Each structure stands twice: as C-alpha cells, then as structure tokens.
Amino acid sequence: MTPSYFIDRCLGHYDLPRLLREAGMDLVTHRDFGVLHDEEDVVWIPKVAKAGYVILTSDKDIRKNPLELQAVIQSRALYFVLGRGSRTAQRNAEIIKAHRRQIEDLARDHAGPLISQINVNEVKVWSSVSSQFEKVSRRRTR
C-alpha cells in the first residue's frame, strides 16, 4: 500500500506540496490536517502518526529534544527529515521523488518508531531512535 504523507510547516504550504501532488503523492499539509501554526511538535506528531501519515520535515532539532523524540517513540511515528542545506521547493521535490520508493519501502517495512534522514544520495535510517532518546536525556540531566 502506498503511504500518505504529512508535510511539516517548515517545508512550506504551497510549492512543495503542489510538486509532490503533481507526482502522484497523496499528502496533507499542516493546514490541511488542522494543525495550528504554533502547535508544538509534541502535540501534533502523535495525532499525525495515529492517522497513519508518514511525516516529511526538515526539522533536525528533534535529535536534541527528548520530548519530541519521546513523542515519535510513543506514537510509533514514521519521521523522515530532509538533509542539510536550504533548498528550493523544486530541489526538495526532486530529492523526495528520487528516493520515494525507498521511503515507501521503509514505511511499509517498519511499524515505527522510525526516524530517517533523506540526503541527496541516500535515505539513512537512524540506528536506534530509543538510543538517541537515551543519549539526549543523559545530556540534559548533566
């Protein structure tokens, strides 16, 4: 089954979603889903995961935020982060479309939680979301 995608607000509401829809991808944006602009990630991640969406974002700060990592873990979210650099919507769409099959295979084969980084040349799965959470939590308690 082909997944449906949730486009995080940091990726925009118009250009990237339009380009991905034109490529045949089923998706909703933050606005489409009814997420408020200032709604905390720890609130919307579980809602989106429960609805069965694969999350596409460019928000790399999750690596340093134990509450957001915990939200991904507890909700068993499938969370894909676009890699480094600021890019145009066109370039981001090209990268996502180039790796679409791998993203869909990972989404199908993992019940979650899953965090992966989409780079120009590859989709890299984090070795363990739980170990990342433990590492971040330990740093915060020092």
Number of helices: 7
Number of strands: 6
Mean pLDDT comes to: 88
CATH topology: Rossmann fold
What is the string of helix and strand elements? EHEHHEHEHHEEH
- Determine the fraction of residues in helical runs and give it as a percent range: 40-55%
Kindly report how far apart the N and C termini lie. Answer: 44 Å
Tell me the name of the CATH class. Alpha Beta
What number of structural domains do the residues give?
Answer: 1
**Major sheet details:** 6 strands, mixed
Beta-strand proportion: 15-25%
Per CATH, which architecture? 3-Layer(aba) Sandwich
Strands of the biggest beta sheet: in what spatial order? 2-1-3-4-5-6
Radius of gyration: 14 Å
Structural class by SSE content? alpha/beta
Overview of the structural elements:
- This protein has 142 residues and is of the alpha/beta class.
- The chain has one domain: Rossmann fold (3-Layer(aba) Sandwich).
- Helices cover 46% and strands 16% of the residues.
- The radius of gyration is 14 Å and the shape is globular.
- The mean pLDDT is 88.
Summarize the topology:
Elements: E1 5-7, H1 15-22, E2 27-29, H2 30-33, H3 41-50, E3 54-57, H4 66-75, E4 78-82, H5 89-98, H6 100-109, E5 114-118, E6 123-125, H7 129-141
Parallel strand pairs: 1-2, 1-3, 3-4, 4-5
Antiparallel strand pairs: 5-6
Helix pairs in contact: 1-5, 3-4, 4-7
Nutshell version of this structure?
By secondary structure, the chain is an alpha/beta fold.
Features:
alpha/beta; globular
